[in-house]
Amino acid sequence: MAVDGAAVAAAGPGTLAVRYAIPGEQAHVEVVRIGPAPLGRIVALERRSPEATVPRCPHFGRCGGCQWQHITPEGQRRFKTAMVVETLK
Question: Which among 11, 22, 42, 71 could disulfide-bond with 75, CB atoms 3.0 to 4.6 Å apart, if both were Cys?
Answer without folding.
Answer: 71
